[in-house]
Amino acid sequence: MTGAVGSEGRIMPVGAVPLKVEAANEARMHRVLVPDEVDTADADWATPFLVQVSPVGSISQAYEALTDRPLRP
User: Fold this and answer.
1) What was the pLDDT predicted at 36?
2) Which of 71, 3, 59, 69 is nearest to 32 (CA)?
3) 11-12 and 31-35 as β-strands: parallel, antiparallel, unpaired?
């Protein structure tokens, strides 16, 4: 996962997401969580073929994306 976490548990935008996704691909990772808010400095970019990129907006969304269960029942 890449992103900063705000005080309310919100995933904040970060820069260089395309480079981070490419690094995950080179490390043979299959899934990357990224902030759902795009940094305006990042231009359009392509997702590597074997990497699933999941935009998330909060810690609870990130947890659910990784576990398929809600953080709080």
Assistant:
1) 85
2) 3
3) unpaired
Q: Which domain covers residue 19, as residue numbers? A: 4-51
Residue range 43-62, pLDDT digits in tens: 666 666 678 888 899 999 99
Q: What's the longest Cα–Cα distance across the chain?
A: 38
Its pTM stands at 0.74
* Total count of domains within the chain: 1
- The answer to whether residue 72 is domain-embedded is no
Would residue 43 count as lying in a domain? yes
Burial bucket for residue 10 (CB in 10 Å: 0-12, 13-18, 19+): middle
How far apart are alpha carbons 3 and 34 in whole angstroms? 6
